[in-house]
Amino acid sequence: MPLLPLIALLVACVLPVQAADLGAAEYGFPLDNPFEATIATTPLELRPAVPADDEIDQDDYSLRLRPEREFTLPDNFWPVKRLGYRLARQAGPAPLIFIISGTGAHYANGKTEALKQLFYGAGFHVVQLSSPTSYDFMAAASRYATPGLSQDDAKDLYRVMQAVRAQQRKLPVTEFHLLGYSLGALHAAFVSQLDETRQSFGFKRVLLLNPPVNLYTSISNLDKLVQTRVEGIDNNTTFYEVVLDKLTRYYRHKGYIDLDEAMLYDFQQSPLRLSDEQMAMLIGTVFRFSAADIAFTSDLINRRGLITPPDYPIDEGTSLEPFLKRALLCDFDCYIVEQLIPMWRAQYDGGSLTQMIEQVSLYALEDYLRSADKIAVMHNADDLILGPGDIGFLRRTFGERLTLYPRGGHCGNLNYRVNTAQMLEFFRG
């Protein structure tokens, strides 16, 4: 490691929350490759000490928010006809923090779980929420089941939060906070603005981790990763075969299989490490599956007939593979053109793609974000989802409330103990 864990810990203790000018060597995060950081995240020895899962008083709950879907959704959607969430509770009165997951992520996603452990260990009640782009949220909570219009997504999230509060009315809460990562950070900004008028929570502090600034730029960046040219891939050998061959040889050498972030970090230190092109395509593929999931679920719920014929009989025994294959041909841009913009125009008399981008991105909240002292941003200078001008926008809008780390890729340093110390410092004021 470039710096000892002790030095990283000292940096976390002595640096102010504003870390925009922190150099890479001073910061101490060991992965200078943004693709690698995005995939492998932080080495175990550089993560904070957090409670183990069996030390957390937590349960999963469900909400009945769209009862009409219980009759219109196919039978094999039964697990998501009610919206699930997870609550970790302290023994007595405590602040409560809502965590909004990133693109396509379920409330029990690994990053959401890690943030839960961090804030529970710091004395917070924690509520974990699925992303409005996850199939469970789309089916059980979304009014139009066509995510991508940030104001609509925020309204759906807000109704979920209100329902959680009503269901957990006996939970002793001293104050409310809000956190989102990746796309969930963009949603958190819109939810915070909505709460200014509705005043159900009066969030004391709101933290945006690695948010997209221009949503369309971020989507385009991720879509392009799948188009990366990778050595060794031709008409006879697929990308997945190349990666699988490398992983197989690695596991054969190790003698056991353990597919987690720590393994990925270790794998990238081996001679079999993935190239930049292979890592780019791996990241892009994950997001392509998210896009396919969104396109398939939105089309099915709304009976649009773009992927699944509206009258096609679907039950628990129906193979969805042909439809999922068709959905995989539809990237985020395809979903926007075929489903999101038509819905926006039908419901809100919307106009051009450019007008929609302005409405769904952080640009739409610029005046609010500039004046909202309770909102802060933590981002990475090498984040894959940022485009030209995005960092400049963040600096102008947030000023000293922006913490810009020199490296970390997309959310790859959320569990680095310098970052986590500064997260807790922000929420403690």
UniProtKB/TrEMBL annotation:
Record InterPro entries: AB_hydrolase_fold, MlaA
Keyword Signal: yes
Keywords, sorted A to Z: Kinase, Serine/threonine-protein kinase, Signal, Transferase
Annotated signal peptide: 1-19
GO cellular component: membrane
Top-level taxon in the UniProt lineage: Bacteria
SUPFAM superfamilies per UniProt: alpha/beta-Hydrolases (SSF53474)
A GO molecular-function annotation: protein serine/threonine kinase activity
Protein name: Serine/threonine protein kinase
